[in-house]
Task: structure prediction
Amino acid sequence: MYTQGLNQGPDAADRRIEDAALLQRFQERIDAEERIEPNDWMPEAYRRTLVRQISQHAHSEIIGMQPEGNWITRAPSLRRKAALLAKVQDECGHGLYLYAAAETLGVAREEMVEQLLAGKAKYSSIFNYPTLTWADIGAIGWLVDGAAIMNQIPLCRCSYGPYARAMIRVCKEESFHQRQGYEIMLTLCRGNGAQKEMAQDALNRWWWPCLMMFGPPDAASQHTDTSTRWKIKRFTNDELRQKFIDATVPQAHFLGLTVPDPDLRFDEATGHWAHGAIDWEEFRQVVAGNGPCNAQRMERRRRTEEDGAWVRDAARAFAEKEKSRHRAAA
Ligand code: FAQ
Result:
């Protein structure tokens, strides 16, 4: 017999049965490759995982403008400057698509930005490394955008509709970025000895941090199992890292550059490039805020937010004025 007022009452029991049925139906839809849309029922943990991943991704795009933005005034020609300006603007646009996708899950953009500024939200480890020479701009386009594409192409098939659709557009733009980066590297490698050396130095510094972009090894990844079950992720971190290495090593050889990994060798048995050990302690330090540029990146982002306050105030005041004008006219 049920007693009113206790947790074990009929309502709670009915709700549990109902939730289990909803959960089963949700997983069936995922397994059938149906897209989940904002107004559909979804488990709270699915929503939270998406907000976490999409907002981290958005923050990465926004912070990711800084290392390259650093070279806009020093690009070696007008053509290079125009391409770099367009690329950095594209990254900002990607951040905006992604914040908009996260907002469909019921979290406000202001809240996400607040978490970033308060140092509570993560962004990709890769953007905490400095851009010391022009060759770094080539290396970022080739390697960082290359890694981003490898990770993001499968996200175009993510089970959550708004994220998947945002990724389709982002990937198209990233592939243009990757080509312009590779073309910078190619030009340097076909240039004089000092230019080729600059390209090699950039590869030496960016190679290992790029491998870390794919996240911790599978054995240490907290979220991969659930995220693959929900088809948010389609591949594990190690699988994507390996795909990136297999695609990129021949590109480095074409440039005449040496991948800075003495243990790198082609394994005939598996058909993959076997690589040396990744320094996961360095990754942990960078994610914990102790990378070479973490403090500088956050300081710059906070300052930019403060400098832009008047624009947001003006836009808000204008929107209010327009609203009252429409109300008066109605
Ligand atoms: N940096 O359990 P997992 C770009 C965290 S591309 C910092 O494996 P998950 C384009 C992870 O958040 C770069 N933190 O996590 C561009 C988690 O911490 P939490 C951005 C990392 O989510 C190019 C913990 O470690 N791309 O911006 C990193 O299943 C050029 C455990 O890890 C994306 O965000 C890292 N590298 O897999 C812009 C792609 N890796 O949240 C400008 C979407 C892991 O529990 C210029 N995201 N962590 O506190 C993803 O695909 C996934 O979130 C992974 C991580 C693969 C990054």
